[in-house]
Design a protein that fits this description.
The complex is a heterodimer. Chain A contains five helices and five strands; from the N terminus they run E-H-E-H-E-H-E-H-E-H. By secondary structure, chain A is α/β, with parallel strands linked by helices. Chain A has a five-stranded parallel β-sheet, sandwiched between helices. Chain B is an alpha+beta fold. In chain B, the strands form two sheets. In chain B, strands 1, 3, 4, 5, 6, 8 and 9 form a seven-stranded antiparallel β-sheet that branches. Chain B has a two-stranded antiparallel ribbon with strand order 2-7. The longest helix of chain B is centred in the middle third of the chain and has 24 residues. The chains are: A alpha/beta, B alpha+beta. At the A-B interface, helix 1 of A face helix 3 of B.
């Protein structure tokens, strides 16, 4: 199944990195947001199958953005990407409604595992 | 009285630097030195991230990469290696990401009391030759030489709070 992905990250380098990986896995990046605020405003206009969400962003962090998107779109599939492995952050992400959590450095096999799990659980029914 | 051991905030970062170089980049560490110094000026490399560790400890961290190492790291960062012309353009952003990865990964090993040491996003300096240490703060300096270039890890510690052996005074 080819997923339509939205990438949310304030780093142009990470957007390039994640986009290459998503394409490599056979999926398509349909939209990019550079902030949590933009992600909240633009999610509805694109309705991606999956979102990769950075946690640390300046205006609105990824956990808050995830909470707000899921409040409005409960079926949203959001995967958090961060360099911080603290347990409290992982728990916050899960409580916010994230479907997965990837610790940087980002590797294509880690992303594939999470994406495949999302497909298996939410799309292959 | 609160007991503070700087090694609790230093060792995880130093270890993550080593593991990133060896395991993520596949490099050999050919030489490394560790010193505690009080210089008036610190020489740095091509791209340097300055991170203020807010909180009561009063530490500034600097992570500095020479051009060879950051170019190599940039070439390895993406699954489609950039062409040589792109590497220079991308290397500053990659340096920013590497610093976030090293510090972010290490932070899971820091003590739970987050009031003492709060990492801020790095401020990147490019082509700065040195950092002036006007207040003669005490610096823990680790120099690492790999087979693909060199880097520095610096912990610049407020001399009002640390003695010359980096024991916390307050």
């Amino acid at each position: 199944m080819k997923l339509k992905a939205m990438v949310v990250d304030d780093s142009a380098i990470m957007i390039k990195n994640i986009t290459q990986m998503i394409n490599e896995l056979g999926h398509e990046v349909i939209h990019v947001c550079r902030s949590g605020q933009a992600a909240c405003q633009e999610y509805g206009g694109h309705m991606p199958d999956i979102v990769t969400m950075d946690i640390t962003m300046p205006d609105m962090d990824g956990i808050e953005a995830t909470k707000r998107i899921i409040a409005e779109y409960p079926d949203a599939k959001i995967v958090m990407i961060t360099s911080h492995g603290q347990e409290n952050m992982v728990l916050d992400a899960i409580r916010a409604g994230a479907k997965g959590y990837i610790l940087k450095p980002l590797k294509v096999d880690k992303l594939k595992d999470i994406v495949d799990k999302v497909i298996e659980k939410y799309f292959n029914q | 009285m609160q007991t503070v051991h700087i090694n609790d905030y230093l060792n995880p970062v130093a270890e993550r630097v080593t593991s990133y170089l060896k395991e993520d980049l596949g490099l050999d560490i050919v030489d490394e030195t560790v010193d505690i110094i009080i210089p008036s000026m610190l020489d740095v490399y091509h791209v340097t991230g300055i991170i203020s560790a807010g909180g009561s400890l009063g530490i500034t961290i600097a992570i500095s990469f020479d051009k060879e190492l950051i170019s190599y790291a940039t070439s390895k960062f993406f699954i489609k290696p950039p062409n040589p012309e792109e590497i220079s353009e991308l290397s500053q952003g990659v340096a920013d990401e590497l610093i976030n990865i090293i510090l972010g990964n290490a932070s899971s090993q820091f003590p739970k009391d987050t009031s003492l040491f709060v990492l801020t996003p790095p401020t990147l300096l490019v082509d700065a030759k040195n950092i002036i240490n006007k207040k003669h703060n005490i610096v823990w300096k680790r120099s690492v030489v790999t087979n693909k270039g060199s880097m520095l890890l610096l912990y610049i510690c407020d001399r009002e709070k640390f003695d010359e052996n980096l024991n916390y005074k307050i």
